[in-house]
Amino acid sequence: MSTPEKDLAPWSACRTLADLGAVTARWLRGEVQYFPGHNDPTEPPLPETKGLIDVLVDLNCAGYVTTNSQPGQSMTRDGNAQRAFVRGYCTEDTFRRIDAALFGTELIALPRPPGMYHLCPVPVTTVKGKNFTWGGMSSGEPEAIAREFGGALNDTMLEVLTTCWLVDVLDPVWGRTNLLWSKLRKGLVG
Fold first, then answer.
1. Residue limits of the DUF6919 domain (predicted)?
2. How does strand 130-135 pair with strand 85-90?
């Protein structure tokens, strides 16, 4: 089944990183009902994301276009846990601001500049005591970007993203909830 044009239109109209950040922010606020590339693109942000929406909107509007995020979650009795984590695209200048914001903390940035396709997997979620999802696992290769956005972006936007840095930021402390978000917001928004 193909995606209705009205759902793809906001995404396929993007031409700049700022355009893509604005549409992502609109999706986070519930103004756009479709996010290409998600398991279910018509699903709104997951309930765990509700507490992060304001900071994610701020980050997207500040030039760090997020594609994946999660709050920290302490280990449960059945072995489920999460590290605070976010992945996004940005310019080199924005990455330098992220890097400066993290300086002196335990927070970790896993940057991939344009043309660098090295993967550096770091577990960020455990389910039933086993690693389940990882940071550092996406690359900035054109095919990977097109897949990540479910084929909804035009060639111009895909080309822009291939010139961007792909940056994962994670908190190495399982379950810590606020440090990553406060440092990123302060570093990018003020």
1. 9-188
2. unpaired
Give the predicted TM-score (pTM) of the model: 0.93
Question: Can you give the residue range of the structural domain that contains 109?
Answer: 5-188
Query: pLDDT tens-digit profile of 129-138?
Result: 998 988 888 7
86 forms bridges with which residues in the sheet? Answer: 69, 169
Number of domains in the chain: 1
**Residues in Cβ contact with 137 at an 8 Å cutoff, skipping those fewer than 6 apart:** 119, 121
**63-82 per-residue burial string, b: 16 or more CB within 10 A, e: under 16:** bbbbbbbbbbbeeeeeebbb
3-state secondary structure string, 25-86?
A: HHHHCCCCCCCCCCCCCCCCCCHHHHHHHHHHHHHHHCCCEEEEEECCECCCCCCCEECCEE
Calpha distance 70→103 (Å, rounded)? 21
Between the CA of residue 84 and those of 41, 78, 117, 134, 178, what are the distances in Å? 23, 19, 23, 12, 8
Query: CA 176 to CA 71: how far, in whole Å?
Result: 8
For 27-53, what is each residue's pLDDT tens digit?
999 999 899 877 777 888 888 999 999
Q: Residue 17 burial (CB < 10 Å; 0-12/13-18/19+)?
A: buried
